[in-house]
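Pilot study result, target chain (101 residues):
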Amino acid sequence: MDHPVTAYTCRDPRPDYFAITSYTFDWVLGGQSTPMRLWRKPLHAMIDAFTTAGFGLSVISEPQPDPAARALFPDGFDDLSTKPCFLFFVVEALPSVTGPE
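Predicted structure:
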């Protein structure tokens, strides 16, 4: 799934931020092409999916690449370091709540 801000700001034509959609593209890595399918969802839809499934949200993180990656990926490093690309959620299973029996 794309970072919701990236999906909205870096695509042309710009998609409806609140619409849940998918798209496909060919990801070329090491000279090999692999078809990829990604989903676009607004941030609240992602969080709602976790809470509906019984998880509590502990952390939302937008990490930047490790500085050592600059030597491995010189062409893409600056892009990954300055634009929102990754969004990590740390979730925890909430204790089951049951009513009196």
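One observation from the pilot: DSSP finds four helices and four strands in the chain. A full batch analysis is planned for the follow-on phase.
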